[in-house]
Amino acid sequence: MMYSLFAALLGEVPRHEQGDLSQQDKRCVFLTVHDLGTNHTAMVDFVNQPAMMEIKERSCFIHVDVPGHEENSPDLPESYPFPSLQTLGEDLITVLDFLHVKYAVGLGEGAGANILARCGLAHPRRLLGLVLVNCTGSTSSVADAFRTRFSRWKGTDISQSEEDFLIYHKFGHQIISEASECGERERERILAEFRSRLRGNLNTHNIKQYVRAFIHRKDLVLKGCQPDILLITGMKSPYASVVEKMYKELDKDKVTILKVDRAGDVLAEAVCKLLFINFYLNFFK
């Protein structure tokens, strides 16, 4: 079901719930945040996969859309300053407060993982664990800056360079290097599906606001973070080396890393789901 609530700094916060929150004392509650170029439907699709059925039956999920990313959203007004990733993370706790949820596990991908990590740092007693997929700890890389420099990021439509940036951010090297193995037809199907969702019911003006917030993110320092952390990355992801570097800097009693071979978009990989289930059963059961 879809609802909205008002957060002091974020404004209207659309959310989608899966599971019965009245059973939160008996189930694990996940708070999720999506990546760039998507919305809560990406997380709903992940949870609805057959491999996730066991977790789905034992859990509740609160999927949050960042501002302006609900289906068929109007343009965010010019007077609205799109929040930074830090602000999004700090104020995200209002969702749990509004729903009277005592504790949750954060599950985020890409920019959403960065947001939830900041939420865990700011509210360590409310997020018992963090599942961070392709999470970036450092500020924008040289590659980010290079691609952005040649991208207009203006107007109402997504330009080709902007689309290319989002495809690389999502799939990394997989789309190119795996093409010969999975076939050109499969490659085109994957890209067509992503482009269709990107240019479908999502507001491209608002997508760009989220992208800018991600590009201008500040360093994320997880050293000393209290919640247990699961870092997941695909070895074809452009952020694989960043995730591995983050892991090396953290307390090994608090962090686990799962590296998925031959994958960029790890949420679409069955092996990732199975590893995620194993982690869930061992740490959050």
From TrEMBL:
Pfam families for the chain: Ndr
Family (UniProt): Belongs to the NDRG family.
UniProt name for this protein: N-myc downstream regulated
